[in-house]
Design brief:
- By secondary structure, this protein is of the alpha/beta class.
- It has one domain.
- The chain is built from 4 helices and 8 strands, in the order H-E-E-E-E-E-H-E-H-H-E-E.
- Strands 1-7-6-3-4-5-2-8 form an 8-stranded mixed beta sheet.
- A hairpin with a 4-residue loop joins strand 4 and strand 5.
- The chain starts with 5 loop residues before the first helix and ends in a 19-residue tail after the last strand.
C-alpha cells in the first residue's frame, strides 16, 4: 500500500487473543464473571507488561479466567507486588513507573524470554495482544430500592 509505514504494517500483523480486566478491587474476588455470571476458573497466564520507559516485563501470573467470555481477570495489587519484588533486584529505578498489561505469550515463548533467549522485537512478534480491555464497576452488597437496577 502506498504511504503505509512498516510500523503500521507491524501493528496490523499482531495476533489478538483474550480479553483482559485488571481489577483495582482489593477485597473482591471474581468467582463469577462480571459480564456473563459464569463461574471463573483459575489459570496461569504469561502476561506481557510494558513499563515506562520502553521496558517489557514478563509475568507468569495466576488469574481468574472466564472460558465463555475469554476474559482474564488479574488483580492490580498482585501484579504490582510481583513486579516490585522482581524489579527491586534487576532495575529498581523503574519501580512505580506507569505500566500497562498488553498481552500474553505461549508458555514456551515465556520460558525462552525469561532466560533471555529472545530479543524484545522477537518477543513482540510472538506476543498475543489483548483483543479488548474491559472495565467493571462493582456495587457493594447492600439493600437497594426495588425500582433501582444496579446490575450491569
Amino acid at each position: 500500500m502506498p504511504g503505509k509505514t512498516s510500523r503500521e504494517g507491524k501493528v496490523n500483523k499482531l495476533k489478538k487473543k483474550h480479553r483482559f480486566f485488571q481489577s483495582p478491587y482489593r477485597d473482591y474476588v471474581f468467582t463469577k464473571c462480571p459480564k456473563c455470571n459464569t463461574k471463573t476458573k483459575i489459570r496461569k497466564f504469561p502476561l506481557v507488561i510494558h513499563i515506562e520507559p520502553q521496558q517489557l516485563f514478563l509475568l507468569n501470573k495466576q488469574c481468574r479466567y472466564c472460558t465463555r467470555c475469554d476474559l482474564i481477570i488479574a488483580k492490580q495489587e498482585e501484579i504490582e507486588a510481583l513486579m516490585a519484588a522482581r524489579l527491586s533486584l534487576e532495575i529498581p529505578e523503574i519501580i512505580g513507573n506507569e505500566y500497562l498489561a498488553i498481552g500474553t505469550l505461549d508458555k514456551k515463548d515465556w520460558r525462552e524470554g525469561n532466560r533471555g533467549g529472545i530479543t524484545s522485537s522477537e518477543l513482540i512478534d510472538r506476543m498475543y495482544v489483548f483483543e479488548d480491555v474491559w472495565d467493571f464497576n462493582i456495587n457493594p452488597a447492600r439493600w437497594y430500592p426495588a425500582d433501582k437496577n444496579f446490575r450491569q
